[in-house]
Structure formats: C-alpha cells, structure tokens
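2024-03-11 09:14:02 INFO worker-7 job=invfold-0412 stage=load source=structure_tokens
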C-alpha cells in the first residue's frame, strides 16, 4: 500500500531511526520543492483521476538511477490498482512523487524521497508469488512442523530486494521424501519465561496513537474513533515532541523511556477524565451527528464548556506530593536522598532499591508518617488499617531486617 504520513513516519523510524517530527519536516520540504505530494495525509489510496498520471510518474523514474532499471521494466506492464479507491481518499490522497526529478538532495531528504518513490513502484507492481512448503515431522509422540518458501515471481519485492523480517536461509528447505527417516543430530530442552511488552519506539507509539480507540467499550464511540485515534497524521509528531520538550520521556537509542517526571504526571492523571481516550470518540461522534444534522453545534459547544469546567475542577482538587521535599537520607544505603512521589517514596539510587508504598492495607500514609519511618525506622501508632477480612486495626510500622515495611505489633506475653 502507498504511504500515508503515519506509515511513512513509522517505517522511517524503524528502518532509519528518524523521529516522527524529522520525517514530517523532510516530507514538508520535499512537498515545497514540488518533488512529492502533500505530506499531511491520512489516506493510503489515490483516486481514479490520479491513477491516470501514474504511468507517466513511473516512466519519469527512468531518470532516477536507483529505480531506472525497474521503472523501465514495468512501465509497459499492467499496473496493480489495489490502491485506487475514490471512497477511501480523504481530504488528501496518499503520498506519491511528482514528475519533477530531484537533484543533489541531502542524504536524509534523499532517504525519504526514495522511500516514497520506491513505495509507489511497489504499490503498482505485480504481486510477489511464492511456493510455500510445510513439512511435518514426528519424533516419538511429538509433532514438529517447519515451513519454507521459494519466490517464483519477485513482483513488487524486486524494487528494493529486501528480505522480510522473518525470512532467512531456513526458508529454503532440504529435499525430503514422505515417510523418510531422518537422524536426530541434536536436541535440547529450553526453559523460557514470558517477557513483558518492550518499551515503545516512535514507530510503535505512532501505531498505538493511531489505533487508540480499539479499547473503547462503547460501540458508537469506538466506531467514531476508528479513523482518528489520538491526534491526526499532522499532529502526532508534535504531540510526541511535546512529551520530549516537557521531559516526560527521553530517547534511549530507539526506545522511548518515561522519566520520573512523566511517571509522576501519569500517576496523577491516569484516572482523571482528561486522560479518558473515549473523550475523543465522544467528540468525533458528536461532530458526525452535527454533520448529518442530528445535533446542533451550540449543544456540542455547551458540552465542551461543561467538560472544561469539570476537568479543571478535578485537576485543581488533586493533591500532589513533590519529589525531594522532605530531605530524607535513605536508611538502607545511608547515602542517597529519598524522593517522594504520589504513590511511593524511594531511594534516588536505583541500585539501592529501597521503596515505601504510600498505600498499606487500604490506608494512605502521609508524608510525615513516611518521614518518621525513614528517619527513626518506625512510626507512631497509625489508625485505620484494614485486614483482609475487612476489620479495622491500628499499629505502628517499621522496617524489618531487609528494609521491608511491616507492622510493629507488640509481642504477646505468655500466660503463666
């Protein structure tokens, strides 16, 4: 499929390490130089009238050294038209080149131009045809299956001659006969554990923003968000850059890592209305009803006013504990300061690992109570804990020998 802006940003990030903002900036330069079409598009299709220009655009790439040979091969062949659909073209059609040939582009601009030009060639090329073979092996009572493939007609894959992510030499299976006995050369049992989801890259974050509405329960809101998600193709890069500018996250190689500041903000707003992704669905649904005449714009405007007052009041009533305001030294490592956050207080040295959770048996510990625990190793009696059975009880807290927070119940005296 042809590129829309988000897909271009995702692939430029995963293949070349470009940020979403950088890709948008380069695509805008190429557009202003009249080398490619309008970049801020959310469509991966072109209309039938634009399709009439495609043969000439392909022919023009015979003048571009990287694609000259392939463009010459397909210029007189039937073109694939799966990207042609007037109904799926939004305000702007998919990204394609113009007939103007670039000269001496800077390396990064050349990279993005070739991505757009190459994808255009791929989109209108013939299909890639493979012979796929599956072999089932029986060892004892266990079945093993291996699949391999051989490309019979390269089709669109000939443009860049790139391998698929899961393609390797193992795809070329050896010749075997049905019923043949094969020797077992080696075997081993591997013990593995499930892994947590990896950190987002800009590519995966863009995908998550694009499909944010999938988790919305209300069917109408989910349908309204189907084509929107969080932000638009034109604004998602700016949203990500804002998170960097406010130091809510940082780049570590290709990964996006939330900062402590970002985590603190998340803890504060995650349950608030301002962070409810379904809000976008509600607004999109309302705008669709206005467009169809089922709702008056003034009514929508009033709901926005009410919503603004609600989220403002909710945020202003939120109490925030600021990190580092209590000047406590970690009792475990006896060196690093303790940082206070909305849900925890912890040592600023990650290698130390001391952490005190504010919530203990349905009781929220105050800054003073945590400070007493850190400085004296124990607290005064704290009222209002709840047992698993739901009964209230009072008790002091203390650190045990491993610096875990435990109750400091008095020892029971034995009766004589």
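2024-03-11 09:14:09 INFO worker-7 stage=emit residues=416
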């Amino acid at each position: 499929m042809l590129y829309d802006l988000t897909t271009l940003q995702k692939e430029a990030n995963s293949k070349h390490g470009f940020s979403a903002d950088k890709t948008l900036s380069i695509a805008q330069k190429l557009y202003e130089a009249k080398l490619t079409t309008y970049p801020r598009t959310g469509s991966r299709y072109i209309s039938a009238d634009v399709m009439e220009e495609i043969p000439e655009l392909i022919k023009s790439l015979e003048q571009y050294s990287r694609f000259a040979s392939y463009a010459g091969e397909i210029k007189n062949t039937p073109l694939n038209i799966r990207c042609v659909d007037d109904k799926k073209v939004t305000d702007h059609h998919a990204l394609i080149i113009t007939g103007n040939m670039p000269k001496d582009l800077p390396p990064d601009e050349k990279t993005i131009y070739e991505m757009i030009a190459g994808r255009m060639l791929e989109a209108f090329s013939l299909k890639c045809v493979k012979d796929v073979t599956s072999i089932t092996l029986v060892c004892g009572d266990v079945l093993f299956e291996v699949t391999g493939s051989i490309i019979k007609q390269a089709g669109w894959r000939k443009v860049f001659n790139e391998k698929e992510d899961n393609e390797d030499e193992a795809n070329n299976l050896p010749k075997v006969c049905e019923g043949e006995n094969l020797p077992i050369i080696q075997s081993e049992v591997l013990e593995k554990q499930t892994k947590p989801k990896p950190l987002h890259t800009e590519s995966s974050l863009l995908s998550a923003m694009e499909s944010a509405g999938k988790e919305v329960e209300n069917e109408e809101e989910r349908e309204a968000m189907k084509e929107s998600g969080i932000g638009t193709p034109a604004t998602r890069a700016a949203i990500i850059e804002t998170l960097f500018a406010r130091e809510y996250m940082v780049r570590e190689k290709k990964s996006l890592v939330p900062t402590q500041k970002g985590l603190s903000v998340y803890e504060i707003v995650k349950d608030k209305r301002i962070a409810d992704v379904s809000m976008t669905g509600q607004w999109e649904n309302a705008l669709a009803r206005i467009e169809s005449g089922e709702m008056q714009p003034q009514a929508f405007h009033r709901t926005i006013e009410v919503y603004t007052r609600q989220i403002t009041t909710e945020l202003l009533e939120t109490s925030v504990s600021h990190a580092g305001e209590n000047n406590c030294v970690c009792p475990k490592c006896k060196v690093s300061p303790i940082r206070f956050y909305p849900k925890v207080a912890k040592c600023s040295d990650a290698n130390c690992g001391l952490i005190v959770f504010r919530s203990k048996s349905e009781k929220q510990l105050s800054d003073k109570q945590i400070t007493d625990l850190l400085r004296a190793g124990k607290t005064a009696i704290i009222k209002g804990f709840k047992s698993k059975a739901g009964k209230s009880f009072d008790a002091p807290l203390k650190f045990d020998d491993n610096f875990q927070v435990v109750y400091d119940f008095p020892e029971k005296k034995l009766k004589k």
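2024-03-11 09:14:09 INFO worker-7 stage=report msg="The two ends are 85 Å apart (CA to CA)."
2024-03-11 09:14:10 INFO worker-7 job finished
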